[in-house]
């Protein structure tokens, strides 16, 4: 056993909301440079404690240590970025047609906010929500995944040590997510919810939010296409495929899932990728030699097994992997399937595991149609040397995050969010802090004209 924790519920969340309500006014009125300094200090502390935070994450979640360290650096980057954004919340004056009036646009924090975060990125998914909330002058209560509460609690310790006032940020951990979140959805004082998780839960939260007219940011499921054109640099494409597919053992909502490769280069691409994935070391994430750690649970492995078995039974070719590995744990070998078609489960469902499923195409029009043939619209990737095609596909692909010759496009400075069934709203960039701000319009009348 790694640790034991109290099992929080609605009572604990109600107290956290009350604490946030008590702290909200003072935090909103705290000068932006002061808020920014606290965020920056928390970011520095995360980097100073990177080994402690990374080891804790690997022990509770499983990802290899070097990935955990990368996530801590990524998580800290949201704090340093939004520390600066705190000082860039600008209103404006609008030219008036009436010389006796002045028209102003003001921006103020929305108020108390809430974050519900997943297990696959237990640090970064908190700071990506918390950074802009605190920068804007909002308090926040966070309900982390019941599978990864320790990372969330350690981040709370970081903020306490950075000087964040009591009540501005609280963590409520427990096993019954619906029970914990119920006070958040029912309380009119909580004005904004940011959720990362499944589309099923996201749509339920959207319905619940209607009664209190809460603002929502929803980052939901994905089924990302990965397009390789005949003119692609295959070395870049293979490197990007490994990075996108194998990060956190394929357990990311932006992981490449559907690989569409031009028929002219599919043999070379598939062979190179199978060789690369076959060389990856599967094992304990605490071992620095490990490239691929365990999946999050036994049901997660069973789902991967079912997808691979269905594909092979329906005619797909297995190039590498295809089975469990490392006795006594939820491990699955990095796998490459070729000859996948749209009827197979792996083409229709998000696998959330270390499996590459390769299909072919012959034209750009066909590739775009295949990529868009999903209700999801979170991330997409494509590889080509044709600059015109880079621009055309950016416009035609129905996804919110697009990597052109780039397998890891996410960064704190840029907006992250999906379209269609992948959610609404954005995190990161200037758009991320806008989600936590109310816009007010002020018309000031009866201003006397100046007299010489």
UniProtKB/TrEMBL annotation:
SUPFAM superfamilies: ALDH-like (SSF53720). It comes from Actinoallomurus vinaceus. Residues 2-441 form the Aldehyde dehydrogenase domain. It holds the Pfam family Aldedh. This is NAD-dependent succinate-semialdehyde dehydrogenase. The keyword Nucleus does not apply. The keyword Oxidoreductase applies. InterPro entries: Ald_DH/histidinol_DH, Ald_DH_C, Ald_DH_N, Aldehyde_DH_dom, Aldehyde_DH_Superfamily. Keywords: Oxidoreductase.
């Amino acid at each position: 056993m790694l640790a034991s924790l109290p099992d929080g519920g609605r009572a604990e969340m109600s107290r956290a909301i009350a604490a946030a309500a008590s702290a909200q006014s003072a935090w909103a009125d705290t000068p932006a440079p002061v808020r920014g300094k606290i965020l920056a200090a928390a970011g520095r502390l995360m980097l100073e404690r990177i080994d402690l935070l990374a080891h804790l994450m690997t022990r509770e979640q499983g990802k290899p240590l070097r990935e955990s360290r990368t996530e801590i650096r990524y998580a800290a980057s949201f704090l340093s970025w939004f520390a600066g954004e705190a000082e860039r919340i600008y209103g404006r004056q609008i030219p008036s047609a009436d010389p006796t009036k002045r028209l102003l646009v003001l921006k103020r924090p929305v108020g108390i906010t809430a974050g519900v975060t997943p297990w696959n990125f237990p640090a970064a998914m908190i700071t990506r929500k918390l950074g802009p909330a605190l920068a804007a002058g909002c308090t926040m209560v966070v309900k982390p995944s019941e599978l990864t509460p320790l990372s969330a609690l350690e981040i709370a310790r970081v903020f306490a040590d950075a000087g964040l006032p009591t009540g501005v940020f609280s963590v409520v951990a427990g096993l019954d997510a619906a029970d914990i979140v119920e006070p958040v959805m029912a309380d009119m004082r909580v004005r904004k919810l940011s959720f990362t998780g499944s589309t099923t839960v996201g749509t339920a939260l959207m319905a619940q939010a209607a009664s209190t007219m809460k603002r929502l940011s929803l980052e939901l499921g994905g089924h990302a296409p990965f397009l390789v054109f005949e003119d692609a640099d295959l070395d870049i494409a293979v490197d990007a495929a490994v990075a996108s597919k194998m990060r956190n053992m394929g357990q990311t909502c932006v992981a490449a899932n559907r690989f569409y490769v031009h028929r002219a280069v599919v043999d070379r691409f598939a062979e190179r990728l199978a060789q690369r994935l076959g060389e990856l070391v599967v094992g304990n994430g605490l071992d620095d030699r490990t490239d691929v750690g365990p999946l999050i649970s036994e049901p997660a492995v069973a789902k991967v097994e079912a997808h691979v078995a269905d594909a092979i039974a329906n005619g797909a070719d297995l190039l590498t992997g295809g089975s469990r590995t490392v006795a006594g744990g939820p491990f699955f070998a990095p796998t490459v399937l070729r000859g996948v078609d749209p009827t197979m489960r792996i083409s229709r469902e998000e696998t959330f595991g270390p499996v590459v499923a390769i299909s072919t195409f012959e034209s750009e029009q066909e590739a775009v149609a295949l990529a868009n043939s999903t209700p999801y619209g979170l991330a997409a990737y494509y590889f080509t040397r044709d600059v015109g095609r880079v621009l055309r596909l950016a416009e035609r692909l129905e996804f919110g995050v697009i990597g052109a010759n780039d397998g890891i496009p996410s960064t704190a400075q840029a907006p992250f969010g999906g379209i269609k069934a992948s959610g609404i709203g954005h995190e990161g960039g200037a758009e991320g802090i806008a989600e936590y701000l109310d816009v007010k319009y002020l018309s000031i009348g009866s201003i006397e004209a100046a007299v010489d």
